[in-house]
Write a structure and sequence with these properties.
This protein has 278 residues and is an alpha/beta fold. It contains 10 helices and 8 strands. Strand 6, helix 9 and strand 7 form a beta-alpha-beta unit. The radius of gyration is 17 Å and the shape is globular. The relative contact order is 0.15.
Length: 278
């Protein structure tokens, strides 16, 4: 088992990750990756592996990113993968990603589902192929909108209370079950990125109360398969200050807020404070 795989099995691990999507060009990505490396190097406590930072740049950056991140605690990720080697023009096979030093691969992001027509069957193929190649699938899941029983105050991300949390958790559970084809041994090797679609790109994340409630119910559902401690991180306009307010969540999947490397460092500090609170 890889070091990352061992970290995923440890319920005490906190994951802090960031994806660039397509926001940064090549030169800006190199500069940003170097800044992230400096943030990691400035925190020697990361070497213990209780907080796992991961970085997901765009595909052309992967070789350079691997060199920049070599010897650091930073885990290299990819934003997508194909489901097989062979005649798939424009795709990248999981085996090639593994050869480039990628440790985990993002699968099933809401944007892939919406804009590129990725359905449950395709996502299941990708999850299996990534796992077969020795990669850790980072499975993105989340409800499209708040349930009708939920009340909005000033906008989607301001949802107060926990109304709608049970429906969201059951929907997310069904996405996980579909992605692994009911193979719960495979599910144990995943990192789940819970990203309510309505919170992606919003000014603020979903409320801590709501996220904590969804994850709590999700863990109860997973517990029927012995996976109550599965790594479940939150994404969707996540930023510094959020992680300490969440209960039962295994970390954060950051987006544009961490394109400022200093913000990534702030969240790492929050994660380290939590794991060493005792």
């Amino acid at each position: 088992m890889t070091q990352l795989g061992q970290a995923i099995k440890d319920p005490g691990t906190i994951f802090v990750g960031v994806s660039t999507k397509m926001y940064l060009g090549y030169r800006d990505s190199l500069r940003w990756l170097d800044e992230l490396r400096q943030q990691a190097d400035a925190r020697p406590a990361l070497a213990a592996g209780r907080v796992v930072p991961f970085v997901i740049p765009s595909f052309p950056m992967l070789p350079a990113a691997g060199e920049i991140m070599a010897g650091s605690p930073l885990v290299l990720g990819a934003q997508n993968c194909g489901w097989a080697d062979g005649p798939w023009t424009g795709e990248l096979s999981p085996s090639l990603l593994a050869e480039l030093g990628v440790g985990l691969v993002e699968i099933g992001h809401a944007e892939r589902r919406r804009h590129f027509g990725e359905d449950d069957a395709m996502i299941a193929l990708k999850v299996r192929a990534a796992d077969d190649a020795g990669l850790s699938p980072l499975l993105c899941v989340g409800e499209e909108s708040l349930g009708p029983e939920a009340t909005l105050n000033a906008g989607a991300a301001d949802a107060g209370g926990t109304a709608g949390a049970e429906g969201a958790a059951r929907f997310v559970f069904s996405q996980i079950e579909s992605a692994v084809g009911g193979d719960w041994d495979l599910a144990a090797r995943l990192v789940i990125a819970y990203e309510p679609v309505w919170a992606i790109g919003a000014a603020d994340p979903a409320s801590a109360e709501y996220v904590s409630a969804v994850v709590h119910i999700l863990r109860e559902l997973l517990g029927a398969h012995g996976l109550q401690h599965l790594a479940v991180i939150y994404g969707g306009s996540a930023k510094p200050g959020l992680l300490p307010t969440l209960n039962g969540v295994s970390g954060l999947f950051l987006g544009r807020f961490a394109h400022d490397a200093a913000n990534f460092g702030k969240v790492l500090d929050e994660a380290l404070s939590l794991v060493y609170a005792d």
